[in-house]
Amino acid sequence: MSHRAVSAQNVAFTYPSGVEPLIDVSVDIAPRSRVALLGANGSGKTTLLRILAGSLKPARGSVHVDNEPLRYDRKGLRAHREAVQLVLQNPDDQLFSADVVHDVAFGPVNLGLGTAEIFERVNDAMALLSIEQLADRPTHELSYGERKRVAIAGAMAMRPCVLLLDEPSAGLDPAGVEEMFFALEKLERNGTTVVLSTHDTALALEWADSVGVVETGTVRQGDPRLLLAEQELVAAARLRSPWPLELAASLASSGRIADGATPRNIKEVCQEIERGSSPVIRYGQSKV
């Protein structure tokens, strides 16, 4: 699997209804990175993912892979979709076959690959998502979380360098979310760049290397700790500030931790508290 950089430059898109979710969007996806696209429902996150995947052609602007512009002819789109795969929010939109193994094989079969390579890709993809035990199960008998993992396995069987996930945690209970991100960690160790859309700022703060906040048809991209600490930006995007940063601000106002601390999770919050409130106790003295 090669490692590719993907970018959108000054992209705009208008639906036939006249709705223009994206006005001037630029976003950069570095190889082997974790990128979270944040925005409220209807903000344009899914539209942007579809444009990055080549499923939609922008009205203005361009998509690039390793600085080469995406070509929208049959040959160009085929090459792009081998490099970049999109998994939609609802797995049922991407499950076509009667059982899991045939569903995961759908993409490689349509590439015209030989039987041996199809078999290898399917086995590898199911192992990455830990769904080997589901191989012969009818897809309609699977749980929602299992169907999500099967849909991702189908995308991974194409061996993309970039995987785009639309709201991968939506509809999952806490155990399902944990299983999903355990699977994503395996994909990342395998060299896959993962881009996901979400409105969960706490998830993005902890998980992502880079976040893009989608707001009024544009995207602000940057370090999660810095960007998600901008309360005006987060509010304008109709999002809620991530709870670790809200808690840090409250603790800083009472002197419990240092001003400007940007913990990403509960472990880092505890570390900041220990760092800010542990007095030196000398022998023979008691802690007051």
UniProtKB/TrEMBL annotation:
Signal peptide: none annotated. Its main location: membrane. It is a peripheral membrane protein. GO terms for molecular function: ATP binding; ATP hydrolysis activity; ATPase-coupled transmembrane transporter activity. Keywords: ATP-binding, Cell membrane, Membrane, Nucleotide-binding, Translocase, Transport. SUPFAM superfamilies: P-loop containing nucleoside triphosphate hydrolases (SSF52540). One of its GO terms (biological process) is cobalt ion transport. InterPro entries: AAA+_ATPase (IPR003593), ABC_transporter-like_ATP-bd (IPR003439), ABC_transporter-like_CS (IPR017871), ABC_transpr_CbiO/EcfA_su (IPR015856), Co_trans_ATP-bd (IPR005876), ECF_ABC_transporter_ATP-bd (IPR050095), P-loop_NTPase (IPR027417). One of its GO terms (cellular component) is ATP-binding cassette (ABC) transporter complex. It is found in: Cell membrane. Pfam families: ABC_tran. Residues 6-241 form the ABC transporter domain. Belongs to the ABC transporter superfamily. Probably part of an ABC transporter complex. Responsible for energy coupling to the transport system. Part of an ABC transporter complex. Responsible for energy coupling to the transport system. This is ABC transporter ATP-binding protein.
